[in-house]
UniProtKB/TrEMBL annotation:
Taxonomic placement: Bacteria, Pseudomonadati, Aquificota, Aquificia, Aquificales
Protein name from the UniProt record: histidine kinase
Interval of the full protein contained in this chain: 446 to 674 of 674
All copies of domain Histidine kinase, residue ranges: 20-228
Organism of this sequence: Persephonella atlantica
Recorded superkingdom: Bacteria
Length: 229
């Protein structure tokens, strides 16, 4: 229990630091952005394209930085869990519905093996977020076309949820990094999906396994403590 308390405290401290840092960075960024705008206007009056171009570059990049800071603020926001007995089968089924809109259903075949109701104790919405993030990654890895296998089984005192795709896989040396906040290989990725997954699973005393082979695909297995009915 003591270790658990420490962990929670650490989270709170990191959250506070991130929020404070974000705030401190936002003001100078706003000043940079406003100055760049003024320089651009000056460049327009002088009809100097080089000045305009450089000022626009500063504007664009400071707005990108502001974007990243906003996401950090969001990430740092404390989350409150409402824990209850959760039917994992139901949560997984609704996660599939959320992640794969009707317009894509014809191109993505989901093979489900969710035979029995299996229960854990936790926050339904948070757990749904976990499965949604993993399924969306699987879909994106296969460019919106292909097959995903989703399985729910009992495994000792754990419920095991497996989400497997047949995409390009993850290079072995990258596997450690994929859970880092902001790590992404996608042009428009946020890099937050898996960091959120790992935080929620940890908060639920669960574990994550990744099995991936380049050129063959990726399987994420989430293990959560069973709650007997
Ligand atoms: P994002 O999806 O915004 O990039 P994530 O945290 O969800 O952020 O994922 C981080 C990175 O992990 C992805 O950019 C991708 O490189 C890799 N990744 C995650 N899931 C898969 C998968 N199923 N197949 C291949 N690569 C994956
Ligand atoms: Mg993602």
């Amino acid at each position: 229990l003591e270790a658990q308390l420490l962990e929670t405290e650490k989270h709170a401290v990191i959250g506070k630091m991130a929020a404070g840092l974000s705030h401190d960075i936002k003001n100078p960024l706003a000043a940079i952005s406003a100055s760049a705008f003024a320089i651009k206007k000056k460049g327009e009056r002088l009809k100097d394209n080089r000045i305009i171009e450089l000022a626009e570059k500063i504007e664009k990049n400071s707005s990108r930085a502001a974007d990243i800071i906003n996401r950090l603020l969001n990430y740092a926001k404390p989350s409150y869990y409402r824990s209850e007995k959760v039917n994992l089968r139901e949560v997984i089924l609704s996660s599939i519905d959320f992640s794969i809109p009707d317009s894509r259903k014809k191109d993505i075949k989901v093979y489900k093996r969710l035979r029995s109701d299996i229960f854990t104790y936790g926050d339904k919405n948070a757990l749904q977020q976990v499965f949604i993030n993993l399924i969306i990654n699987a879909v994106e890895a296969m460019n919106n076309r292909g097959r995903i296998d989703i399985k729910l089984t009992k495994n000792g005192n754990y419920a095991a949820i497996s989400i497997k795709d047949y995409g390009p896989g993850i290079p072995e040396k990258m596997v450690e990094e994929i859970f880092d906040p902001f790590f992404t290989t996608k042009e428009k990725g946020t890099g937050l999906g898996l960091s959120v997954v790992s935080r929620i699973v940890k908060d639920h005393h669960g574990k994550i396994e990744v099995h991936s082979k380049e050129g063959e695909g990726t399987e994420f297995i989430i293990k959560l403590p069973l709650m007997e009915d």
